Amino acid sequence: MARRAVLFDLGGVLFGPGLQHFLGSLERDSALPRNFLQKVMLDGGSDSPHAKVMRGQISLSQLFSEVEEGCRKHAAASGVPLPETFSIARAFESMAADGKLNTPFLQAAAALRRNGFKTCVFTNSWVDDSAGRLFTATLMNVLRRHFDLVIESCRVGMQKPEPGIYSHALEALQAQPQEVIFLDDIGENLKPARQLGMATILVRDTEAALKELQELSGLLDQEETLPTACDPANISHGYVPIRPGVQLHFVEMGHGPVVCLCHGFPESWLSWRYQIPALADAGFRVIALEMKGYGDSTAPPGELGLLPRQAPAASLSPRQGIAQAVLIGHDWGGFVVWNMALFYPERVRAVASLNTPYRPADPDVDIVEKMRSIPTFNYQFYFQEPGVAEAELEKDISRTMKVVIRSARQEVAHRPGSPLPFAAGGLLVGLPENPPASRILSGPALQYYVQQFTKSGFRGPLNWYRNMRPNWRWALSAKDRKITMPALMVTAGKDIVLHPSMSKGMEEWIPQLSRGHIEDCGHWTQMERPAELNKILLDWLEKLPESPSLPKISRL
Q: Does domain 5-14+99-217 fall into CATH 3.40.190.10?
């Protein structure tokens, strides 16, 4: 029977070091005998403080009280001096401060999920009503983003190694024991699983455990390491009106300072699927827009592309109660965020663009003539006549997406040198009717793209290209301004249209510009090199100056 589900313990596997490590540190700091705290916590067997808190019969703060009372009794009976300031809570506080998630295991779980495995956090845990409960809430939120299921002993009234909790896990997974792999760092917890017929891995070393998991699953050795992606069905969706009759669809994840993501053509908010969980895990509130004219966002009939003064991010912020946000854009989204920084700097904490460089509008050269002089932009003139490109691209949306959105490392069904493979007579002329799957857009993600473009068609997305002169004329009013907030330009070495050389000299207009570069990457940066991009973005975000406190506006 093929394996199709994996259970991961939390403390000591997904998160470490485990509680036992911090109890040992507290014993040393308090000059207590080794295993003194463990003996107190386990005293009473099935009625011990430890057993009761793991089954949810008492809360964590009650555990603190019972254990500290037990420590005083044991210390008095054994003649062990107990410091006056002793508190068992210190071990839990240290675990929150110094413990870390095990990234390789999270990456393994993501790879397993992409290949159809169900993944589950299977942990002995407590109901946390302590002063540090925000840490527990944050940790569990992160885990729920990375795993299909989370089973906590305190929620089901059973703890490992009680046999009942293993049966409960199998029922929740809808799996037979022979289909399940279970990883834990405590051998006693593995024994009942093994007796049921599960494959088990005793975790002592991450690398060795991953090798065992690879052998048992038969998958991880074939997988390129990718960050966890969000699922459209398991993320919060919302809508915000821009003006009467026009609304934007967006998705949202996380809590903290706001990061707003703006996609390009022909894409979706789902282009950011690998960035949204990573940014949320890092402590940001992530809002990914579906740009005007795409999917569930509207665009009135006949309306041309976006002027910066109608920018979605400008409308989203006040209506969502957001005074300022970090804006990150790709392709057309990069155009939007640079102009937001120019025209609405008070709303922009910092700004970043992927692939799309910034250049101030040039009053001496007509924008249309300038674009005609750049051969790699010829596809944009094919887009100008309403209805022509729409007919070609909408004929078979799945084929369109598979042809256009491909990795720079994959040349089949793609004309080298351009993210949009234009040839005389049409965008898709001469390319296979049944192109092979794209390495960066396939499966459920491709199906979602097809669903959204079936709803919206290509008129709205193509209209972004039909507004060159109005956008240029309006941008001329800001041609002498500089972008003064912190900024980031991320270039991709194999993006032939938006080549890194186009970003040369941006520092003249953006004094606080930082740079990131991914050499082996084409146009679709978020999907082609998500791990490298996430590192660049997070490193930059971590270095941003803290936002000042919001001013208190007197009540009218």
A: no
